[in-house]
Amino acid sequence: MPGDLADGRVVIVGASLAGLRAAETLRTEGFTGSLTVVGDEPHPPYDRPPLSKQVLLGKAAADTTGLPMRRDPDADWRLGTPATGLDLLGKRVVLDDGESLPYDRVLIATGTRARPWPNPEEAALDGVFTLRTRDEAGRLAECLAAGPQRVLVIGAGFTGSEIASACRERGLAVTVAERGPAPLVGALGGTLSRLAAVMQRNHGVDLRCGVTVTALRGDGNGRFTGADLSDGTRVDADLCVVALGAVRNVEWLAESGLAAGPRGIACDAGCRAFTMYGIVTDDVFVAGDVSRFPHPLFGYQMLSLEHWGNAVEQAEVAAHNMVNPGPLQRPHLAIPTFWSTQFGFNIKSVGVPTYSDHVVIAQGSLEARRLAMVYGYQGRVTAAVTVDMAKSLDYYRSLIETAAPFPPPTGAADRAIAADIPIPSDVPDPKGLSHGPTVALTGYLPDRRLTVVRP
Questions:
Q1: What pLDDT does 415 receive?
Q2: Contact 319, 22 (CB under 8 A)
């Protein structure tokens, strides 16, 4: 393959959204060699966002969430067979069954898994769930359909909040326990998180903030019956969903020599993995939730994203760069986008809300429950979040891409901005949350202003 990039052997580790889109793109780019996709689950790639929405509501079966193929990638699918190691020198992926797959290029797209409840005995109680996989969603949906007396959700990030929303839509009593001051605060900062708290309580959620769950209780026969909270109270419930964020699937790379750790695998803007010494590799690529990559709009800090759109766009860039020589390679410079539907509201985000020091309500109002909030850092626009006002998002995306000054100027007549006084964005320290942010930035904070020009 070094001689002819269109031929050779490519192994993709991760039968995920990113893995599938990369496989398709490789073929579209003219790759004619052997292509193997390794997955630890027995299922072909499937879509995760519906698992916490339509599947929990009983509107779709978990086994109907398979991802449509844009084209047949003509791959050898190794499903239900986890990878256990990567030999950079021998250029081999080692599998759980003892086989090793030689490669000329390898793409790591192993994503994340749900963070488990820390006490294994309590986590094993019948009625205690996490929600990340298709199988978990199917089992949880069955239990919700059976009509539990009360559901306890631990963690009020996006997944926890969507689960609570599905419970209320099904008419189920639900208690949400969150260590931080409000739901979604780790992703959206203080002002919008206060609106999220009002939304939950208005829909009948028993929301407990500023507390931790100290123990899960059983009935002596292995059945979950409730939980003890740090404020001395007890919640009686017959179902518990642990929504404490995600763990990146990097353990299998521990001996590989790659820069892999709890925040993911570090790579350059071209999706090429770094070694543990900070040297970029030529034949190991990374895409999706498991990656950390530098973004010029956010101070070249390493960005970790758990977003659907990022997995797709990064996989396409990685696949392109795997089969094209250096001068033809391109950077992954996508602006992060995210959406969530909960409690009858449509929340959409562009940019990195946590990369901010101030926010301003640019359109609408908290009282109207319909608004566009713009985030700024050191005098430039870095993010925007809309609540039931998604049509405005493209405008704010353009402000982010052009490093527009913050607070934002008055827009065109069709999107007049009557900006309030900027207030602190109130982004908390993630250590104080029971859910992790879906976007994490790590690194230093230079103050250079850069504009990203779309190709």
A1: 44
A2: yes
Closest CA to 214 of 152, 286, 290: 152
| Helix 17-28 vs helix 308-322: crossing angle, to nearest 10 | 40
**Token code pair at residue 4:** 């002819």
- pTM, two decimals, is 0.91
Question: Is 52:162 a contact under the CB 8 Å cutoff?
Answer: yes
Judge whether 203 lies within some domain: yes
Decide which of 189, 223, 244 is a domain's last residue: 244
346 has pLDDT over 80: yes
Q: Other CB atoms closer than 10 Å to residue 118's CB: what's the count?
A: 9
- The answer as to whether 455 is a domain residue is no
Q: What is the DSSP string of 87-127?
A: ETTTTEEEETTS-EEE-SEEEE---EEEPPPS-HHHHTSBT
The enclosing domain of 224 has a CATH number of 3.50.50.60
**123 is a domain residue:** yes
Domain-ending residue, one of 244, 263, 278: 244
Dihedral sign computed on CA atoms, order 359, 362, 366, 370: negative
Could you list the residue range(s) of the whole structural domain that residue 80 is in? 9-113+247-328
Rg (CA), the chain: 22
Spatial CA neighbour of 246 closest among 289, 302, 294, 186: 289
